[in-house]
Design goal:
- There is one protein chain.
- With 574 residues, the protein is an alpha+beta fold.
- It has three domains: 270 residues, Aminohydrolase, N-terminal nucleophile (Ntn) domain (Glutamine Phosphoribosylpyrophosphate, subunit 1, domain 1, 4-Layer Sandwich), CATH 3.60.20; 105 residues, Immunoglobulin-like (Sandwich), CATH 2.60.40.2250; 142 residues, C8orf32 fold.
- It is 19% helix and 36% strand.
- It has eleven helices and 32 strands.
- The strands form six sheets. Strands 4-3-5-1-13-10-15 form a seven-stranded antiparallel sheet. Strands 6-7-8-9-16-17-18 form a seven-stranded antiparallel sheet, with helices on one face.
- A hairpin with a 3-residue loop joins strand 8 and strand 9.
- The protein is elongated.
C-alpha cells in the first residue's frame, strides 16, 4: 500500500478514492488524510481521520462526494506515528502563508526532529513531519518566499539534503498551485506516473486503495501522479496505456504545475526539461529549390472551369523569392492579383476540355528568419489577457474568432487553454511556446484518421492527426486566449533522411500568431518548433480554405476526380 499519493492535473478532476484498507477483516491503518483545493481556490480542504473505524463515514466522502474536485490532491495513509492518534498528528498538514493554504505530507521517519527555526509557524502535534513543515515555512518567511514559484530550488535542495542526513525524506509540498516532490536518498522510493490522454476510464490501485479518475465523468486531462508505490492499472480501464510509471532518482526534486513538470533538480545539479528546449538557437540563411507538382484527373472531360492557385512563395523581409515559374498544362486565361490576406493568387479560366491537368510551380527561395525570437523583450502587454484597442480589434477580428463549435466544447477547450496560462504565470510567450511544444509531444502524427471536417475539439479528444489538425487546434486555443492566430501554408525542409521526411514531401501547415509590437510569428506544433530557415511560406488566411494551394470550380463536365501532389524541397545550388 502506498502511504503517500499526490496528483496534479491540467484542469479539475473529481477522482474517487476507495480505501479498501478500512474493509472488514483488514488491519486498520493508524489514520488517513486527504487534502485538495476545491474549485481551484487557494484555500485547502482536508479530510482527516485518526484511528479510523471500518467503513468510516469520512472514507465514504472520499469515495462518492461530488465536491471532492480539484486539480491538486494529496492523500496520506499512516501506519505509525510520533505521538497520540489524533488529528494533530495525522497528515497531510495545512498552514496559511502568502494568502494561500499550504499542505505537506511525508513518507518515512526522521531519526530525530529537526532544529527549530525562529518564525511564526509552530507545530501543533508531535510528528517529525509537522516539524519539517514549520521549519521550511519559517525559512520561506525569512526569505520572503510567498509561493513555491518564489523558492530557490537549489537552496531548497540543500535543505532537503541536510534533513536527509537525519532520516528519510520522501515528501510532497504544495501551495495550491505548484506541487513539489522530493525523493528520499536513504531508501523510501518515490514513483512518478505520467497521465496522457486520450482515455475513457482511468483506474489504478492495489489491495488497499483504488483511485478512479473518471468515475464521475471522463475529461481529457493530462496529469502527474507521485506515489511511494507504483499502483497497478485496473483491467477494465485505460490506465495500462495512459499512465507510465518511472521511479525518481534518490535525492531528486521536482516541481509540477497543472499536470506538467516545470522544474527539476538532482544531486548532480539541474536536469534538462522540455522548457529548456523551447527557444531555438540562431541559424544561418538558407536557399531552397521548391517544386510543387499537382495533377488532377477526371473520368469525364471538364469542359469549363475556374481555378485559384496560391503557389508563389511570400516575398518580404524574412523571405526572398529569387525566381518563380508556374506551368499549366491546359490552355487558359490567367489573372494575377493579391487577395485580402496579401497572398499572391493566380486565377485561371479554362474553356478547353480536359481530363488531366498538371500544375507545376518551381521557385528559388532564400529564407532569412535566422532568429525568430530575436525581437526586443515583450515589455508591453506581454501577459494574458491581451488588451486590444478598438481599431486594432476591428482589423484582427477575423483572426480572433474561434471556430463555430458547441458551447460545451468551446468551454472545455478554453479550460484546456487556460491550464497553459496558469502553468506559465500568465506570460504570453511562454504560454504559446508551451502549447506549441505540448501538441508536438503529446499528440500523435497519424495520417488517414482525420479529414477536412475534423474539428479542433475532435483533435483535442483523440490526440492524433496531421499538421492541418494540429494547426487548427492551436489556432482555436490561441483565439480563445485572445491571441490573433492565422493559418499558414507552405513547405518545410526536413532533409533526405529525416524521420519527418513525409512532411517535406507535401505541403505543410503551421500557425502564425500576432504578438503585440512584434507582429506575426510562426509556430509549428507538428514539430514543436518555431518557424525558422527550414520553413517556406506561400499563403496565410483564417483557415485552410483561405490558404489552400489549389482549388477550383467545375461548371460543365467532369466526374470522378483523383488528385496527386508531389513536393520537393532541396538546398539550392544557385
Amino acid at each position: 500500500m502506498p502511504n503517500l499519493l499526490a496528483m496534479s492535473f491540467e484542469g479539475e478532476l473529481a477522482p474517487s478514492f476507495s480505501l479498501h484498507c478500512l474493509n472488514a477483516g483488514r488491519k486498520l491503518p493508524d489514520g488517513w488524510g486527504l487534502g485538495y483545493y476545491p474549485a481551484g481556490e487557494p484555500s485547502a480542504a482536508v479530510l482527516k481521520e485518526p484511528a479510523p473505524p471500518q467503513h468510516s463515514m469520512r472514507s465514504q466522502l472520499a469515495l462518492s462526494w461530488e465536491q471532492v474536485e480539484s486539480n491538486l490532491f494529496m492523500l496520506h495513509i499512516r501506519h505509525a506515528t510520533w505521538g497520540a492518534l489524533s488529528d494533530a498528528n495525522t497528515q497531510p498538514f495545512s498552514r496559511t502563508w502568502g494568502r494561500r493554504d499550504w499542505m505537506m505530507a511525508h513518507a518515512g521517519s526522521l531519526d530525530r526532529k529537526p532544529e527549530d527555526v525562529p518564525g511564526p509557524f509552530e507545530p501543533v502535534g508531535s510528528t517529525d513531519t509537522e516539524a519539517i513543515f514549520c521549519m521550511l515555512l519559517n525559512r520561506f518567511v525569512e526569505r520572503g518566499w510567498r509561493s513555491l514559484a518564489d523558492v530557490d530550488l537549489d537552496v531548497l535542495l540543500t535543505w532537503c539534503n541536510e534533513l536527509n542526513e537525519i532520516g528519510e525524506l520522501t515528501l510532497c509540498l504544495t501551495d495550491g498551485r505548484d506541487l513539489l516532490v522530493h525523493a528520499d536518498r536513504r531508501g523510501v522510493p518515490m514513483w512518478l506516473g505520467q497521465l496522457t490522454p486520450p482515455y475513457d476510464k482511468i483506474a489504478f490501485g492495489d489491495a488497499d486503495l483504488d483511485v478512479d479518475l473518471t468515475k464521475r465523468g471522463a475529461k481529457s486531462r493530462k496529469g502527474v501522479i507521485a506515489c511511494t508505490e507504483a499502483l497497478t492499472p485496473r483491467d477494465d480501464g485505460d490506465a495500462a496505456r495512459a499512465v507510465s510509471w518511472a521511479q525518481l532518482a534518490p535525492g531528486q526534486l521536482m516541481v509540477i504545475r497543472e499536470g506538467a513538470v516545470i522544474a527539476e533538480r538532482a544531486a548532480s545539479g539541474a536536469l534538462q526539461t522540455p522548457r529548456n528546449l523551447w527557444r531555438p538557437a540562431r541559424s544561418e540563411p538558407k536557399r531552397f529549390d521548391v517544386t510543387h507538382r499537382t495533377v488532377y484527373r477526371y473520368k469525364k472531360p471538364v469542359e469549363r472551369s475556374t481555378h485559384l492557385i496560391r503557389l508563389k512563395p511570400v516575398h518580404d523581409a524574412l523571405q526572398q523569392v529569387l525566381s518563380h515559374e508556374l506551368h499549366i498544362s491546359i490552355p487558359h486565361l490567367k489573372r494575377d492579383y493579391d487577395d485580402v490576406f496579401g497572398n499572391a493568387v493566380s486565377r485561371l479560366n479554362i474553356e478547353t476540355p480536359f481530363d488531366e491537368m498538371v500544375i507545376e510551380s518551381k521557385s528559388v527561395v532564400e529564407v532569412l528568419d535566422v532568429d525568430p525570437l530575436g525581437m526586443r523583450p515583450l515589455r508591453v502587454r506581454s501577459t494574458i489577457p491581451l488588451v486590444w484597442m478598438p481599431w486594432q480589434r476591428q482589423v484582427l477580428d477575423p483572426f480572433l474568432l474561434p471556430p463555430e463549435l458547441p458551447e460545451t466544447e468551446l468551454d472545455e477547450l478554453a479550460e484546456y487553454a487556460m491550464s497553459f496560462v496558469k502553468r506559465n504565470d500568465y506570460d504570453l510567450l511562454d504560454t504559446l511556446l508551451d502549447i506549441n511544444d505540448s501538441i508536438f509531444r503529446e499528440y500523435k502524427y497519424i495520417q488517414g484518421e482525420t479529414n477536412l471536417d475534423t474539428s479542433a475539439f475532435d483533435v483535442y479528444c483523440n490526440r492524433r492527426g496531421v499538421c492541418q489538425d494540429f494547426t487548427n487546434l492551436m489556432i482555436c486555443l490561441a483565439r480563445l486566449l485572445g491571441v490573433p492566430a492565422r493559418y499558414a501554408c507552405g513547405y518545410i525542409y526536413t532533409g533526405p533522411k529525416n524521420a519527418n521526411q513525409r512532411q517535406g514531401e507535401a505541403t505543410h501547415a503551421w500557425v502564425q500568431l500576432y504578438l503585440p509590437q512584434v507582429g506575426w510569428k510562426g509556430f509549428d506544433p507538428t514539430n514543436g518548433i518555431l518557424t525558422q530557415t527550414d520553413h517556406v511560406r506561400t499563403a496565410v488566411g483564417r483557415n485552410y480554405l483561405d490558404a489552400t494551394p489549389t482549388s477550383g470550380t467545375i461548371f460543365v463536365g467532369g466526374g470522378g476526380e483523383t488528385l496527386s501532389v508531389e513536393v520537393r524541397v532541396e538546398p539550392s545550388q544557385r
